[in-house]
TrEMBL record:
GO terms for biological process: immune response-regulating signaling pathway. Residues 7-91, 102-189 form the Immunoglobulin domain. It is found in: Cell membrane. Belongs to the immunoglobulin superfamily. PANTHER family: KILLER CELL IMMUNOGLOBULIN-LIKE RECEPTOR 2DL4 (PTHR11738:SF113), MHC CLASS I NK CELL RECEPTOR (PTHR11738). It is a single-pass type I membrane protein. The keyword Chloroplast does not apply. SMART domains: IG. Keywords: Cell membrane, Disulfide bond, Glycoprotein, Immunoglobulin domain, Membrane, Receptor, Repeat, Signal, Transmembrane, Transmembrane helix. This is Natural killer cell immunoglobulin-like receptor. The chain crosses the membrane at residues 215-233.
Amino acid sequence: KPFCSAWPSAVVPQGGHVTLRCHYRRGFNIFTLYKKDGVPVPELYNRIFWNSFLISPVTPAHAGTYRCRGFHPHSPTEWSAPSNPLVIMVTGLYEKPSLSAQPGPTVRAGENVTLSCSSWSSFDMYHLSREGEAHQLRLPAVPSINGTFQADFPLGPATHRGTYRCFGSFRGSPYEWSDPSDPLLVSVTGNPSSSWPSPTEPSFKTGIARHLHAVIRYSVAIILFTTLLFFLLRRWCSKKKMLL
């Protein structure tokens, strides 16, 4: 089966552009593209594409799941298996939520940090993304005490520094997202490897100490064995002289 991808990203702002690509075996650069859910996209049906398909400008109707099938020009009736599902998310349809960090955006290595995404809009789901990564985390929104709708993303020990954003969406249109929150830079101070060594991966100093202890034990054993052997040989030689 071919592989379907989006460039520059599968998360696209409304009014922007995205190129859908179908990667197939060498010589198989002709494909058809179809949408599985959401609003149908008429320009896809009964059309053959070469290598890629540009969507511009992107509208909410383009949000959804896509697959492609490839075929060889010499065998137009023989199609490949369907590709992996490719989900296109369209952003900028609702007001942006806010993103905050607890205990704060700057934490020490090994300290837990939680990112909270909230809004006065009654979003059903929040999506958290980190700059430079393709996948997102998602959690259902729950009503908070102050009347907002919130989701808390526990990141655990703060070793993942980076810039984060979150989006909100509704259950009826899961691929149509809000504007992104303001970017939140999470900074981590200290050295995680020295402050929190892994029990399965000892630190460099610990490794040296263990190696040194092993060498000492081995050296002591050799000295004791050599001394014992010396006394045994000496005693044997003494007995032999007495017999002569």
